[in-house]
Every structure is written in C-alpha cells, then in structure tokens.
Automatic annotation (TrEMBL), chains A, B, C, D:
InterPro entries: Aminotrans_V_dom, Aminotrans_V_PyrdxlP_BS, AspGlyoxATase, PyrdxlP-dep_Trfase, PyrdxlP-dep_Trfase_major, PyrdxlP-dep_Trfase_small, SP_NH2Trfase/AEP_transaminase. Substrate binds at R341. Its cofactor is pyridoxal 5'-phosphate. It comes from the Bacteria. Pfam families: Aminotran_5 (PF00266). This is Aminotransferase class V-fold PLP-dependent enzyme. It comes from Roseinatronobacter bogoriensis subsp. barguzinensis.
C-alpha cells in the first residue's frame, strides 16, 4: 500500500494540496500577459515576506545552491575578500562555492552547534581597516545543526565597525517560516528556495536584493549569464523573462504567498515556533537534547537531536524509512551519526507532528535505545493542547 | 493553513494518490472501446475480491443505499417477507428501506453491540415451514457499533433449516478490508461501495449477484429502472452501459483493485486486523472498551469506543474537528453520545493511525476525561512495532 | 502518443481544468461544516441557473436516468396517467421508465426530427376533462435528434386547457447551455445532470422541484428510498445528507456554477448558440442538413447531421475514433446510421470546434463521401471570426 | 470560459496528462532509495534518446540557457577560443553567453534562414593549424528561423580538418522530436531541455557528455558550482544529488521517456515530420513560405512562416492570443514582424494541429491578409489523411 505519511526532512517540505494544484497547470505562453498575471503577485508577495522596502526580487529556475552562486557572482569579482563563519554543512558549502569562484574567504571557524559569532565578526571587521572585505556571508538557519543565527546582530557588528561590506544571508531554511526583516536588518541579499517555507517543490531560487547590492552588481565581474540579475531585471521590466521560466512553480509561489498571508505571517511564525517547541519537549522527555548549544540558538524549522552515546542517528533514519515509511534527516559532516534531524517546517499540523514523534519513538525502541514509548508524544501533546490558541488546525 | 491530516471516519476513507489520479481523467467516450478497457478489469477484479465463482457483477453510479435498494428491487416483489436482525443504525436503515418498498420485514431485535443472532435466525427459518421468507438480510459489518457478524454462520443456519431464502449481505464497510467469501458463504447478493475498502470517493454501488439471485431477478416485480440489473447485464454484454457511467470512478476502481492485489488481499486483511488491534490496545490503555460485546465480534474496520459514564463521545468528535482538524465518527441512534468511532480502514499506515490515537487522547484531556496522555499511543506503538512483519509500510 | 483531442459527443463534455481540480479533493467528512460550505453555494447556484423562484433543489449521486426516476417516483403513484410525446431515443427511454414503474403513459407519437407537438398536447389535455393526466413529460432537448422543444408552449397548452397536470421536464442536455426558465415556464420538475452543461463528470442528477411538485410528493406512493426527496429535504435542513454524498462532484458543481456565472449565463447561452450556428454553417457547406426539421427546432448543444443517401453515419464515428482519436456520437434508434452527431456543448472554444469539423471532413473524404476538404471549416471560420464579439476566447 | 486550446509555441509544449500526473507527486525524500528508483531510469532513457554509447548524463534543475552555460564552463577556460556560426536568435544567445564568460568566440556570420555553413566551418578549422579553437558550437535546430543544421556534416568538417575541437550542440528544440545521433555524429556535449520534445514543464537542463568532454572537464577552469559536472557525477555515484533535485520533473522525465519509447522513437520522429510537412503544405496553400531557405533545412519542430510584404507576423500572434486564445510564436531579432512561428513539437495530434492552422487562417482574414479561409486547412487535411499510417492517433 502506498502511504501518505508526512515527511520530516528539513525540506523539501510537505506540499499542500492547493499548491500542488496551483503548480500543475497546462502549458501557458510565458511571453503572454497571462504569465505576467502570475508573476507580478508572486514578486510582490515575496517583498512582503522578506520585509523589504527597496530593491528588487529575482526568481531563478534553480535551487538554493544556485541562489548562493547568484548572490556572489552578481556582486563580487575574482579575488574579492569575503568574511564567513563556518559552523555547519550549509555554511561550509557556501564557503566552498565562494572559493571555487575565486573569492578569498576569511573563515571564522566556529563549533557546530553554535551560531554566527558576533564578537569575532565585529573584531574581524574592525581589523579590516582597509575595507578589503567586500561581503559578510551568514547562514540564518544552519539546517545541519538546527541553529538560528542572529542576523540583526551581524548588522550591528557591521555598523559598530563602520564597515561597508555587503551582508549576504542564506535564508533558505528560515524564510517563510521564521521572522525575517530584510530592511530592518540591512540585509543586502537574502537567498530563499521554493521547497522549504514556501511549501513548493524544489526548482526556484528566490532572492531579495538591496539597492546597495544592485549597485555592486554593476561593477561585479564574476562571470554569469544564467544567474545574471541584469538580464532578469531587463526582462522583468518588459513584462517577461530572459529565458523560459518555471511557470508552474511561479504559479505555485503566488498561491503559497496567498496561503501564508491568509494564515498571517505572524501566525505562521507562531505555528512554527509552537511545533518546534513541542518537538523540543519530546526530545527532553526522551532524555536527549538539541544540537543547538543554547535556547536562543534553537531553530524553529529543524531540530537536530543529539543521540545518546553508543547510538547512531543514521540507524534511526534508515529504520524509520524502511520499517515505517517515514523520512527524517540524517546527520551531515561533523555530526554524521551523532544526530538525527526532525524537520518541522512548511505545511505541518499538530497531528502530523505527533505522528513523526511517535515514529521516532518506535524506532528508538526497535533499536534498543533507552526510551519509554509514548513519553515524547505525551510531552508534546501536553504542550500542544495547551498552546493551541494561536494556530488552531483548520480542516481543509 | 490547510492541513493534510488523515480522516478517521469509517468511510469515506483516505484516498491514495494513485487512485485520485486514476479517477481524475479527461472525458472519455463511454461508448468507445477505451471504456471497455477500463471496465472489464474492474469487474474481473471485483469477482476476485468477493471470492465469487459464478454470477455477475453490477456496478451502479450510486452509493451503498442505492446498492441496498438494487438488491431488493431486483430480487423481490411487493409483499414478500424478508427476515432481518436489527442491531445498529445501518441494519435499521436497510430494514426501513425494505418497508418503504412494501416488503414485510420480520425483524429480530438484537441489542446494539451484538451481531446477527444465529440461533434466532435459524429458529425463525425453521418456523417458516411455508418458506414465506424470501430473503435473509445481514449486515456483515455494522458500522454504527463496530460489530462483525458471522455470515458463514447465517449460511449454516439457512442450510440447517433447509430454507431456500436468498442471503443478501451488506458488506459496504467490510468488503476489501476484511475477508469475504461470497462463494463459500453462499451469499446471493453482496453490496459494497466505492468509498470504504476500495479507497475511492463515494459514487459507486458495487454488487456481486449469484446465479440464484439472477434467477430471482426474472420474477421480481418491485419497480426499478435506474437500478435494474437486466438493463445493466444487457448493456454489459454489448460492451456498454445502459446510461452514462461514472467513468472516472470505474477507472479508479480498476486501480484500487490493482493496488489491493499488489499488496495481496491476505496482506490487506492482515494490515486491517493489525491496525484494528492496535486501536483496541489503545482503547484498553485508556480504560475504555469497544461497543462490540465480545472479541469475536470486533470489527477490523471501525471501533466504536464506549466513553466513560458522564462523558459524551460527540463532544470528542466535535473538538477533534474544530481544534485539531481531525475527523472521527459520532455515535448514531441508540449509542449517540455513548460512543465515538475510529475508522481504521482503507489506506492507513501505522503512522497515520498513531496520529489519530494521539489526537483522541488530547481531546480527552481537553474535555477533562480521566486519561493519561500518551498511554493509548504507547500501547499501540508497542503492538505495532512488534507486529510490523506482515505489513511493512512502504514509502510512496 | 496520448492525445488531448476534445470530445464531440453530446455529453459527457470536456471537463475544464478548474473543475477537474475542484472535484479531485482529499476525503472530507460529509457530516462536517466543511461539507455544508461546499453544498450550499452549489444549491443556491442551481436555483439561479434554473431561474427558479420557489421550491427546492435536489442533488442525487446518480445520473440523468436516476433523475427521471426520482421525478416520477416522488410525485406519482402506481397507475397514474401521464402524457408524453415520443420523438427520439431519450423521450422514449423516459416513457419506458414510466411504464416499468406502473404508470399509464398516453404517448403522442411524433416523427423524429420534430419537437413536442403543442397542438396535440393541448388537444389531449382538453380531452382529459376528468384530469386523469397527472403529469406531462417533456424532453427539452432531444439529444438523439438535436431538437429543442418549446417548453413555454407546453405551459401555454396546459394553461389554455386549464389542466392541473404537473409539467416534468428533462433538461439534461439543455440546462446550463441553453436558456431555461423554470419559474416563467411553470416547470414543476426540471431534471439536469452533471456531465453536460455543468461540465462535470457523470455522477449527479440535479433536480429543481416546484412547490406544486413538493405538494404532490406528500401523496405520491411509488416506492423510493435512494431517490426519496423527503429524506433529502429532511437531511438538508439539518445541514447534511441522508447517505454519503459525492463530495467531489458537489465541490465541482459549485465551481462550475462559479465559472458559468463568471462568464455570465447570457454569454454562455450566446456562446453555445454561436458554436451551434458555426456547426450548422459547416453542415450546409458539406451539402447536408440537421435532423431537426426546422430552424426553430435546432438545438444549440448537439447537431444530428443527416448523412447523404448511401452513407452511414456510424462509419464516420468509428473512423474518427480509430484513425483520428476523436469522439462523435452515433445515431440511435430510428436514426441509427442515418445521422452522426456533433456535440457542441459545455467547455468548447472556437478553436476546439474547428478541430472537430476538420476531423469530420477528413473522415468523409476517407469514406469516399462527396465533400470538399476545408469547405465546412471555411464556412465555420467565416461565421466565427465575424461573430466573435460575444464570446472572445480567453486564454486560461 | 477557460479554454483548453493547445499551444503552438515552439516550447514549452503541450504537456500530456500522464506526464502532468507523473510530475505532480507528494514530497519524496531525495536522499532515499525511492528517488534513485525514479532517477536511474530517466538517466538510462536519456542515453537511448541521445543515442549515446559512452559518457555521462547530467540533469540540472535549470533550463536550456543553464545547459549552455554548463556545457562551456565544464569544458573550457577563460580566454579559450570557440568557433560558432550565428544564424538566428538562439545561436546568437549562446555566443553572447560565451563572450560573457570570457571566451574568445570566432563567429561565422550566416544569413538567418540558413543553417551552419559546413564549408566555412571546415575552412576555419583548417586555418586553425595551432588548434587554438577548443570547441565548435552548433545549434541543431535554430528555433528562431525553423532551421535544422547538419550536425553530422560538422563532424565531417572536424574530421576532414583533423581538428581536435570539442563539438558542443544545442539540441534543446530538436532532441526527442527529431533524430539525434550523439555517438554517430561524435557530439561531445548535447544540450536538451525538459520543455520541448520531452513534453515536460521547463525546469531541467539535460546534457549528454562524451568521454572526451569529461576529460576536458578535468582541466577546465571556468568557475562553476551549481553547474559543476564533477559534483553531479560524484553525487550520482553515491546514488544521490549534490543539492536538492527537482524530483517531480525527474519523475516526469522517466514517464516521458516511457511514452516516447512506447510510441517508438522512430514513430515519434515520423509523427513530427508528418505534422511539420502538413504545416508546410498549409503554408504553401496560403501562398507563403518557411523562413528556412531550402527543404533540407526545414525543421520538423517549428516553422517560421514568412508573412507577405506589408503584413506583420507579430500582429497575427497577438490577435490569435487575444481573440482566439491560441499561442503562436513571434519573430525574434532580425525576423521580428517578418515571420510568425508555428511550433509543432511534443504532444500534438493531427486534430490539434488542424485547430492551429484554422486559427492562423482566421487571423489572416481578420487582418485583411490575402488568404482564402480553409485553404491551408484543406492542404493539411489532404496530406494528413493520406499519411496517417505511421502515426494513427490513439484515443487516450
């Protein structure tokens, strides 16, 4: 029997019925006004989700990795210096990408489980009196460890140092699920993807670009064509696209924004927090802890659960898939085996989350881990039922 | 946010992705060979699911109620006597239908929570030495109380009494989910619907008709046209349908049978039993009991849970819907308020079931019932994880 | 290769994308308020499409044939006399249904290709001074011959004769596509189906019922349960349904009405007229004629094309299906072989229609009929391009 | 009313029902074996469609433009010389892309309407005795002019000149619709997209890469990460993907290949040729001619129709969209206004094509062009009905 179990990977997330239908459309001429009728509300909506005031939105038929590449190739030139803390697999990969494109990355090595180290960033910026650092890279939500970094704090560090570097932020696994304030935080480029908080299939890189970044674009010499913001902006101005867009995903994006705003962005964030907190209550009841070192670092979209000594998180993930048909995330890189990850973002209800927690518990028991069946579920139930006010589940 | 919570009503059941896609097709000429290519495998598959040897399959664009009406109008005449035990809302409704069509129903009143009373049936048949009783009506699975009756036992009663009455069986909420043996049990008409074990939307009444019932059809004078088996059989013979069929549902039915047979009917029945047993373990852990009086009566498709004195099952159902977006079944008729019903049939996985049990528990706590959060879930988890061999969940 | 050729059968019609999506929904508890939110607008919309003022709407999980049966079993009693003209296969079938339910049908035999004969109807009514005739049956649009009858004229005949008989109208292939005025014409029951003008899959019989018919319902003794209006009305009043409804189709019906009203019913009727007229221009260019005897009888939903002496319309239908993958309708009954039928109702654009006309022409040439390729297409093109004002095709 | 008119743009093409359903799937963990079960047959099928023997397939969540970029960044280094004829908008854009990535493009300017000039290519290669030219770029099917170039001829030119340059081919609008022989023609990289012959939505760039190109990859220094073949190949080898893949499109690609192979690639090519020839017959009947200069250049996927002096092709395209809801392609660049384009690739039947031709005729008449209604349709009908043997339309 095919099952309809939810997925608990930290993206791609469960796709709502309405979004599946919005994406699944007959062919539509992307040079026609009908396309513009889909595209414009999607762009306008993204501005609101990012809390942008000025600047431009770029939507590329690509993924988050493409978004990272677009962010740097459109603003930097070969040999430019960028400052980047590394504290997980995704911050690592963006750094690697920069290096492969010929940038000089000043890496601040940070323990996994920590977030972007504000003091060290500020110190590095202050030390760069020649302003050789052209950009600071920050991973808002490190998906590998379930750590949220303080982007506003990085902005304060930049301002305190009086440093003009661009602030480029990977918000792939945060935007649309956790508060993001592009204008307030002075973010120059925010990178999002379709397949996380926007609840779409993978296939779109979505970028908010500040006027300052647009200005940098004019001088940046890293080669790019597919990702070139200039072609995009010229085509948008003419109501079109420089090449064939992913029409269905753009239609779905417009729908996703409508759904997020119907729920209310504040309610969406509150729901994510509540489900994350329920997950953490379950983790505590299991006698385990999140990989994120301290509560202010806890991600509201993914929890990397540190498994007990002698246990292997990857075993749990494999057993959940093979025995129960449920997908969790494995530990990556430094924390491979040491954690398993529960994604709790996108379309998720109390009831769906409880099924994931119950599955994790069964796997633990199956693997002989020392856990009491029902314990995590009960802790989550208790929290969920007493905090339901903000986000009552509504029948479809 | 729209949620994708499973439903736990005892039908319509959760529709698998594959079946939704099979049903959702462009218009197809129902007088073309393309229709016959859909229809014939559906008919052939139904024969296997019913374990028929001889006789005919009738598929009507209707529902279970229409199936009941078709069963009697095609085999009986005004004033005919039928014997029928009444022990729940659905056995009651079929009796009511018979009376409205001018049949003389000899009702064996039976406590709700009991099944068809074999001894009383046999006694009534033996008493009917003139063979005025033309048919015995039996509800295989009484959806209101979660009681499975012993159809083989009724056949034995008929045979023991040497009585020639037809045996007409409502299998709407059993067929495709619990073992059914039309040939072995000597059933003359079996009535099924699309929206239960076949995992389709409502809209088809599906009937297996024995040669003996086909013979009765020739003499039956209750008026019917839409439901007339003769028109159906004549049209089928010509590769067609006497009026416009529900083409999409028939395409879906063919797919449903393919899915049931890919899983293996025995595995399907074992899965239903296992999920039902897990539910009953949870019920016991809550300190409650099924409405079905004894274990041999327990239904594998629906459990009517008797709620504690002073509690109201309907409150739980309403709260589950309004607060958690989950649908359970209310108590009907005599047991209104006294039970709530958990449907566990059709497409359902361990993981989906656990989410329903967890929801019921939260509602109980919310309503101030004396139940420990996680207790039912833990009992079900323990059972499920140790019995997973027969029905390993498979990722879609 | 699978093709996406439109169908040109006179129902089921091509299903719009939006309606397919509206129908294809996850399982929803039909006892929940969510169902009522779908059902009520559908009912309210049907009232507007039928131009009803008083009375009730009944929506049955059935087909047009079931609608016919419901219309008579809810208003008449065994032995009642009804008056009915017969001038095609569908008027014939309703008469046959009446006879099988024990009604005494006074048939006015009328040549196929003609419509309901007003003078003869009036004469029969006047002759019935005892008012034994309880109902007049009329087929608004005879799908077999492409003939529209004058229902207002039948009302005038009833009024002129001062006859109290009910007026029961089969509008299955007219309602939603051609003007219908239930209140103005004094129709007592109007029968529609989901699969014609409402552009849905088959599976719903839709009836408008006047207060006079509701009054007759109280006294009617023909047996019925599945089709019983009383159960339906009692359940509707409680926000529900007496048995499991076809939830998806009802959701689709609500969408269909939204689409019809977005286009504007007058525009919908004008579009049907325009496409029908284009078809008739093509027919004339081929040197053929409609089966309908005179222009005022021409149906705007289906044209039965009389084929030349020595030709067989069924050959064309079979060749179109086997060689070009296009479905037309065969001639039925008296006109079998003598006509082929082009359905031009429901979702149909200029462009789709032209593809059907072009296909018919190719088949004619393939069969050696004396027709000039492109001739019918050109006549239709000329008409369509000069009459596009009312119904500009709009890109999806 | 929404219409279901086919599109006649030269891509994205009409999407078959089966492929839409294959793409539209619930979220599936792309790190699970379930993903590999989708991905591997897609890759294997692409090898067959390209007629590859050795080498690798790369599938990127991108578009044809991304495929062009991937082809050069993975095989070339800054300052490398490439040879490229320019004879249309798409050959122009690839050249532009090369220049923006720092390549030194030796352009052979060729009149639009001509194909790749073999003699000039050979001469340029012979003149390059130092083998500074690292690659020859060729647009197999120039979508702007409807011209097919002779890729085998370019291979002969390379061989005749004894030149080791790579042969990089844009097959975006040919592969899957017209014969392609990667091994036989010695193509080093073939670039395809999902939205043309593969009948999918846009969103995948599909590349076949020869061993020689893989060898070049090791030394190429153009920066790339998102498009880096090395990351892809390493991830594939581990059964995965270096970042989130477009799972739905890959599932659809597997289905597309199944459909192409069920029809038979030779039959697919024959069908495209036949529909293209029917289009050209219509064009001739209108008194017009294809933009492609000579018959051996005629594309079987798109015809750019040269409009009469004083007429503007863009007017026709706009009128077809606004009045009839049908999409054709406008002329681009040098031929803007001078042509309109009829795409006849992907899922297309005789009947669908005829509707497009009929629409174009109506627009011509509406615009006052000197054309006889029905003339092009008749020419196409005559050809289609007499050549139906190879590709009988099959009902869905």
């Amino acid at each position: 029997m095919s099952t309809h179990n939810p997925v608990f990977i930290p993206g791609p997330t469960n796709i709502p019925e309405e979004i599946r239908k919005a994406c699944d459309i007959p062919t539509l001429d992307h040079r026609s006004p009908a396309f513009a009728r889909l595209f414009k509300p999607a762009v306008a909506g993204i501005r609101r989700v990012l809390a942008m005031d000025q600047g431009e939105i770029i939507i590329l038929p690509s993924t988050g990795t493409g978004g990272w590449e677009a962010a740097i190739t459109n603003t930097l030139s070969s040999g430019d210096k960028v400052l980047a803390p590394r504290f997980g697999m995704f911050s690592h990969r963006w750094i690697d990408l920069c290096q492969r494109h010929g940038l000089d990355v000043q890496i601040i090595e940070t323990p996994w489980g920590q977030g972007a180290p504000l003091a060290e960033i500020e110190a590095a910026l202050r030390a760069d009196s020649a302003h050789e650092i052209k950009a600071v890279l920050a991973t808002h939500n490190e998906t590998a460890t379930g750590v949220r970094s303080d982007i506003a704090g990085i902005r304060r560090a930049l301002d305190a140092a009086g440093h003009p570097a661009l602030l480029l932020v990977d918000g792939v696994s945060s935007i649309g699920s956790m508060p993001f304030d592009m204008a307030g935080w002075g973010v120059d480029i925010a990178v999002a993807g379709s397949q996380k908080g926007f609840m779409l299939p993978a296939g779109l890189a979505i970028l908010g670009v500040s006027p300052k970044a647009l200005n940098a674009m004019e001088k940046a010499t890293l080669p790019r064509t597919f990702f070139d913001f200039r072609d995009m902006l010229a085509a948008y101005a003419a109501g079109g696209y420089p090449y064939t867009p992913a029409v269905g995903l753009i239609a779905g994006l417009a729908k996703a924004i409508e759904m997020l705003e119907d729920e209310g962005l504040e309610n969406v964030y509150a729901r994510h927090h509540r489900l994350a907190e329920a997950t953490r209550r379950a983790v505590a009841a299991w006698g385990m802890r999140p990989c994120a070192a301290t509560p202010e670092l806890y991600s509201d979209t993914v929890t990397a659960v540190v498994v007990p000594e002698g246990c292997n998180g990857t075993d749990l993930v494999q057993l959940a898939a093979s025995k129960y048909g449920v997908a969790f995330g494995v530990g990556l890189g430094e924390v491979a085996g040491k954690v398993f990850r529960i994604g709790h973002l996108g379309m998720l209800s109390d009831v769906m989350l409880l099924s994931g927690l119950a599955t994790a518990e069964m796997c633990m028991a199956d693997l002989g881990w020392d856990v009491q069946l029902g314990s995590g579920v009960a802790a989550a139930q208790e929290y969920l039922r007493n905090s339901a006010g903000v986000a009552l589940a509504r029948a479809a």
